[in-house]
Specification:
Length: 142
């Protein structure tokens, strides 16, 4: 299933209906998605949901998971991605020493890498540069 930026997908979970919005497509990675508030017992007003503050951003092969039946859900429509989520998110990748301590971070903005040698709280809020597993994706839905 091809998904485009702005597409909202409803996913059936044990806790109720969860929603994600595709924010970006990248040639080398699966869809970048943001988690929308939820879960919900009934489908909320989608236009209002699309305007909600950004949740966790991450990369997940959402279209493939739906097409292969690994997720029970459906694309509901396309709504504008809110301003703060229009910019491709910066993802982080730790480089560790032999003891497992983070020595520095690589930060990736979808085009290039930059080195961040200072461990700062700002980096703690950036999503990891990884393709989420199905279990990790479902856990992040809430």
């Amino acid at each position: 299933m091809n998904l485009s930026p702005g597409d909202i997908v409803e996913i059936e979970t044990d806790a109720g209906l969860a929603y994600v919005q595709v924010t970006h497509n990248h040639v080398s990675y699966p869809e970048v998605v943001r988690m929308l508030p939820g879960p919900h017992e009934a489908r909320p007003e989608l236009a209002m949901l699309a305007k909600a503050s950004a949740g966790i951003a991450g990369m997940f092969p959402l279209g493939d998971a739906l097409e292969q039946g690994r997720l029970s859900g459906r694309k509901l429509g396309n709504f504008p991605v809110p301003g703060e989520s229009r910019v491709f998110p910066t993802f982080r990748m730790p480089v560790r020493d032999r003891q497992g301590n983070v020595v520095y971070w690589w930060l990736w903005d979808g085009e290039g890498l930059r080195l961040e040698s200072e461990a700062g709280e700002a980096n703690d809020t950036l999503p990891m540069r990884e393709v989420m597993s199905l279990d990790s994706f479902l856990a992040r839905l809430g």
